[in-house]
Structures are given as C-alpha cells and as structure tokens.
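Predict both folds.
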Amino acid sequence: MKFILKISLFLIFASGWQTSLGQTPIMSQPFVATNFFNPANVGFGTNNQFQSFYRNQFSGVGDPYKTIGIGVDFALFKNEENEGFNNFGVGIQGVSEQVLNGILQTNEITVSLANRVFLNMLKTSYFSIGISSTIISRNIDRNALTFGDQYNSGRLFNTTSLETIGNFPTKFSTNGGFMYSFIAPDVFFQTGASTFYINRSSNTQIYGNANQRFQSIATFNFEHRLFEHNTFFLHAAYQNRLEAEFMYAGGGIGLPINPFDEMQNKVYIGCFYRSKDAIIPYIGFLYNKYKIGITYDIYQNSMTVSNLHPQTIELNLATYFGSNSSRNLKSIFN
C-alpha cells in the first residue's frame, strides 16, 4: 500500500509536465537556496528545513525592485525501517517580486516532489529527480499609476494609456530537474540541472505573443574539510534565461567558531562573480540550527560610471527542525 501511495503521488505531479510556464528568481546566494532552482533537491537534508531570503536590488537609485522568498521542505516516509533515510521529499516555495514598492507584483507558489535512489550501501551517494508545479499571478496597482493623457484626453473617442493596460492572467507551470549528491564526514559534493519555461505575460498594448523559451540551470556545489576543523567551498552555476545568459562562480573558506564544538558551527567568508554584472562578497554563519548569509553586489557594468550608485543587498536565513544527528559534514550547501 505504501508503495502504491508513493507512485500515485509522483504520477499526480508528473501529469502536468507539458504545461510549462514557470521562471526562477535572480539571487546572489543561490548556493544556499538550491530548492528554489531545482526540485530534485527538496526533502533530502538531515532534517526538515525552513528557507527564506530578502533581496533589495538597486536600492541606491530609489526602491525599484525587491524579491522575497520563503520555502519549506520535508522528508516523506522517513521511519525506523529505512534507518531514517527517506526516498521521497516534498517542498513548498513562495516567491514575491515587487517593482516600485509593489506597483507591479509577480507572486509564485511552487510545490515540488522528488525521489532519490541510493547508489551505495552506506547511503552516502544518491541520484534524485524532481518535478514541480507552480501557480503564477501578476498584478498592477492601477491606482498608483497616472498618465499625462488622462488629463488632456477628451475621453469621448480615445482611451487613455491607463485604460489600455489589461489584467494579467494567472498561469500554471510544471518543471523538472535531476541531481547527484555525495555526502561524507569530510566532503559534500552536489551537481545537477533543471529546466523551466519562461512565459512573458502581455497586456492589451502588445500585439502578438511575447518572446518565450526554456530556461536552463546547471549547478555545482563542493565543500571539503581542511586542516581538521576548517573547510573550503566552491560553487558554480550556469543560467540561460530569456533576458540573459550568465555564469556565477566563486568560493571561500569556513572557519570554526569553536574548534571543539560537535555542532560544527562556522563562519564563512567568500566571494563570487556573476559574469558581465557584479562581484559579490559573501559572509555567512552556520550556528546550531541556523544558517545566515549576507551578500552585497558590487556592479561592474556601465551603471557605476553614471551619477546613479545602485546597491543590492541580499539576506538569507534558514533553519531546520530536529536535532543534527548525522556524522557527515555539516555543509553550507546542505
């Protein structure tokens, strides 16, 4: 009966595969929020997890763009029979992108389901696949917009610019990904890829279909113990989006807060580079059940030579539910 239930759940999510309309957020810390970018990563940590991030983009030129994300993922069918190792995981992620203090908002809620297969007897190596279904809504606060022709239009024969802005339809999406992971007492290794379909909503001012195509994402995460208590980590990602194609890569070191603490609490210091865009210093903390990260984007494009000084700050907070009983490396990526 349990086997039939597992297969039924997976098929329910897989049934929407052809209706792909989703898209993922831009982040400066994607390496600690992989569940937002690849559904194959949900539900396979040591414990159930809560994940959140806040990104204030270009704040030096006003308050034009904010992104807020919240996610949780859980282990399914984890019991004494399988020694605490689950084969199925589920996750729920919500992302809100707000332009100009919320005049334009895009809100997405995603439900992800993943299944993994262990590749060795120690269960330190596994391959996972995942699918996700997303509902996407986009809306405009029309009361916050005023156009010049609202004052000088006769309003007898011609409509104003505001009246030609239509409502955006709610959309649904199903996306997929795969991932390979290896977790041991001294090393954490993970690599995978996912695909999403970017759909651009159009309003009544646009004739014809908006440009659309698949978004492809590939990720690589690696952390290794160094000199007994320290670690070093590397992250690389490739994204091919409708508006841009870029690489994101970098790394750093993890320094123990207390070398004799079994909780493996650390301070992380690193730096990353997003191609054609920014250098991104990073500082993070892995303390007991909490993971905290802060980044600041130093832009390298033409905006920095103008009188505008854009600033982007991103905060990331995650925690897990339960005790960390695993002897494997407690990694910034996991």
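Second protein follows, with its predicted structure tokens after the sequence.
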Amino acid sequence: MRMSDRGQKDIHGSWVPSPDPVANERREPADSTNAMPRIAISEALRNNWIEIWYQTKIDLKRKCLAGAEALARIHHPQLGVLPPGSFHPEVDDAGIAELTQQALLATLCDWTMFEEAGFNLQLAVNVPVSALFKLPIPRLVAEYRPRSERWPGLILEATEDQIVREPALINEIAAQFRASGILIAIDEFGAGFSSFARLRDLPFAELKIDRRFITHCATDAANAAICQTAVDLAHRFGSTAVADGVEHPADLQALMVMGCDFGQGPLIAPPMPKEHFVELLRQRMGKPRAAAARPAPGGSQKTAGRVA
C-alpha cells in the first residue's frame, strides 16, 4: 500500500506519545451522555454547520507522520462544536450521501492547503457503503482531485459490518476506484465478526482495528490476541494494519511490538480543525508558522473550510 511521504523527515518519535498543545481552544466535548443535542444532517448542511476536522495518523515503525483522517463535525452557532454522536440517528440515504460528497470534496480541496504548508499527506474519509453505491465517486475525484504530481491518492474507509454485506459489488467498485487513485480501508475491524473467508474476498488496502480491542491490549490477553491476529491477517493479505483510538502509552508500545503499521488516537493527537492541524504539524516538524492563509480559489469558503 502506498502511504504519503514515507520518506518524509523523521521526527524522532515526537509523535509517540503526544500532548495536544494546539487544539485546546476548540477541543470537542466527550460523547458521554444520552442527553446530547441531536442535529439532523439536512439541517446542519442547510445552515452550513459542518466542518471537516483532521486526526493525525503516524507510522509506528518509523515514528513519523503518515497521513490523516477527515472527520465531519457539527459546529452549532449556540451549542458550539458537538461530539460525533450528535448527528441525528434517523437519517435517510440522501442526507448521508450529501454529507459524504461534501466531506469528500472538502478533503480533496484541503490536501492542496496541506501541500502548500509543506505536508504531503494521504488523507482518508469515512464513507458509508450506501454512499459508495450512490455517489459517482470516481467522477468526483477525477474532477476535483489535486493536480499536483505529488498527490498520493485517497483512502475511503467503510465499516466492516457494512462492507461484508456486498462483497461482489465492493470488488467491482474497488476496481473502478483504483484507476482514480482511491483505496478502500475496512474500518472497525473486529466489531463486525466477519469470517476470514469473507474477508479474503474483499479488496482492502488497510485494516483498521476497532478501538475496543486496542484499549488495554497491553494488559488484556484477549484484546492482545485479537490485535495480533488482525495485524498478521492484514500482512498476509498484502495490506497494512492501523490501530484506531490509541489512548494509553502501554498499548501503543504493545502494538509496535506486534508489528502494527500505523496508529491514530487521542494519545497521538485528537481530531482538530484544519488550521490547528496544520499548526500542530508545523510545531512537530520544526517548520515556521505560515504568514497568512490563502483564500480558496474563487473566494469560496464552502469547499475550503466549512462544508455547506
């Protein structure tokens, strides 16, 4: 699998572990209560309340920057930034598809901003399987992708429980995606309990281990066994293993010993707005602060920052 700038300047383990000096100003609240506000996707899109935040992904073997995952967040004018569970659970496919398209286009646009800041990142976007079937993703990527020769392509993440339902269609779609520089990752692996036989038939480039197994994998024998199996399985299929939701230094060390390829989670860096994300990268890489942000082409802010 091709990751972005694997030869990029090594940052000598400064990502492992990492405090969060940048995102304190706009840290998202914990998703911990059943009483949180629920916002319909259509309402958030209509009122321009969607933002795309980014979470760092690191190479656990080289201890250097590898990429980032794009995550949609609601920034409500009165309630502030709402936790991930704030999207109303009763949503229709049309709303999900519209949100997915906006997130995809914003991520493609943001890559250019990151490159201009000196970072060649392979970005990943969460995509429901229903949107994979509904949206003309290869056409959208062909039209809106960065024109730089350095663009490393895009990763689309779909959860295991969704992706194993339609293996034939997923294989057909994946063949079209590869021609457009798009790879597929299986997200939340282990939560869907798919058989290895079904997994063998899926065209995935990354296997993202579900966070419930990452947590305490250094001390919980069952979690450690599941993580090790997932890492070995990914490697046997010629793919890479990603530890998602890493919170504890001991777990991170255990994953390194297991041979896990990449990691992300609050221990390394939480999700944050793109401006803070770029500033965090500058601090870690020793780059000077940018003088001023360049406006998006044509003066539009929709695809550059806040997603309509």
